[in-house]
Amino acid sequence: MTLLFDDSKRLEKAVGPEAAEVIAKLFESQDEAIRKDLATRHDIALVQKDIAVLQAEVEKKLAEAKASLIMWVAGMLVAQSAIIAALVKLLVK
User: What pTM did the predictor assign?
Assistant: First the structure.
């Protein structure tokens, strides 16, 4: 947070010139520290790119899992049909 000219003059009147200078320097150092921690548009773009890559990987794995599940369900359907047919054949005799 940068002190404006009016703010610094009021601060000088309230606490004196030496204390006002120390306080102003403190605010400036805090302002620089805060600005270093802020995300830039470039940082946000990189995060969005990473999210898109991860989303594509998740969608791919979900499609693979879906295909595997369909394969297992179809196999179980065939096995169940074979068992039912065998039981019917045994019971009909």
Answer: 0.52
Assess whether 7 and 33 both reside in one domain: yes
pLDDT for 23-51, tens place per residue? 777 777 777 777 777 888 998 999 999 99
Alpha-carbon distance of 46 to 19, in angstroms, equals 43
Q: Shortest CA distance to 17 belongs to which of 89, 25, 63, 66? A: 25
Domain extent at residue 77: 52-93
Assigned domain for 47 exists: no
The SS3 call for residue 62 is helix
Query: For residue 57, what are its two tokens?
Result: 């990987």
- 3-state SS class at 39: coil
